[in-house]
């Protein structure tokens, strides 16, 4: 049978403990050629954003934040898309555009 390759990430947790740096360096030197390796500490909230960024990179996905006209952007719930996806924006016919030639697209297709 053939080999199957799965996208993987090696996460070293509890990096806040005594001796963890040395153990992590050993782990990293052994696997860094084949896997991305990220040290974290959930207790200290260390590198949690780095893990998120690495997951997004491995899965080749992006976050898109929506913004209604005249309002602030909503950073609480992004739309998650595969990089290169085509996103169809729709504008209600009743929505008034104060500057129709402002260069700001109101509806159409965007390649992400």
- Uncertain spans, ≥5 residues at pLDDT below 50? 97-108
| Tally of helical segments | 2
Biggest sheet features? 2 strands, parallel
Mean of all residue-level pLDDT scores: 80
Structural key phrases:
112 residues, two-stranded parallel ribbon, two-stranded antiparallel sheet
Write structural notes for this entry:
- Strand 1, helix 1 and strand 2 form a beta-alpha-beta unit.
- The chain has a domain at 10-59.
- The protein contains two helices and six strands.
- The two termini are 37 Å apart.
- The chain is 21% helix and 20% strand.
- It has a two-stranded parallel sheet with strand order 1-2. Strands 3-4 form a two-stranded antiparallel ribbon.
- Mean pLDDT is 80; it is low at 97-108.
- It has helices at residues 20-31, 48-59, and strands at 10-12, 37-39, 61-64, 79-82, 86-89, 108-111.
- It is an alpha+beta fold.
Question: What is the element layout, followed by pairings?
Answer:
Elements: E1 10-12, H1 20-31, E2 37-39, H2 48-59, E3 61-64, E4 79-82, E5 86-89, E6 108-111
Parallel strand pairs: 1-2
Antiparallel strand pairs: 3-4, 5-6
Short description:
This protein has 112 residues and is α+β, with helices and mostly antiparallel strands. It has helices at 20-31, 48-59; strands spanning 10-12, 37-39, 61-64, 79-82, 86-89, 108-111. The strands form 3 sheets. The chain has a two-stranded parallel sheet. A two-stranded antiparallel ribbon has the order 3-4. A two-stranded antiparallel sheet has the order 5-6.
């Amino acid at each position: 049978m053939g080999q199957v390759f799965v996208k993987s990430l090696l996460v070293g947790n509890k990096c806040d403990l005594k001796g963890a740096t040395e153990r992590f360096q050993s782990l990293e030197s052994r696997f860094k050629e084949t896997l991305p390796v990220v040290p974290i500490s959930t207790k200290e909230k260390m590198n949690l954003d780095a893990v998120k960024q690495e997951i997004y990179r491995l899965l080749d996905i992006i976050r898109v934040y929506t913004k209604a006209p005249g309002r602030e952007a909503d950073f609480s719930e992004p739309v998650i898309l595969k990089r290169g996806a085509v996103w169809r924006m729709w504008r209600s016919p009743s929505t008034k555009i104060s500057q129709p030639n402002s260069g700001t697209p109101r509806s159409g297709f965007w390649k992400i």
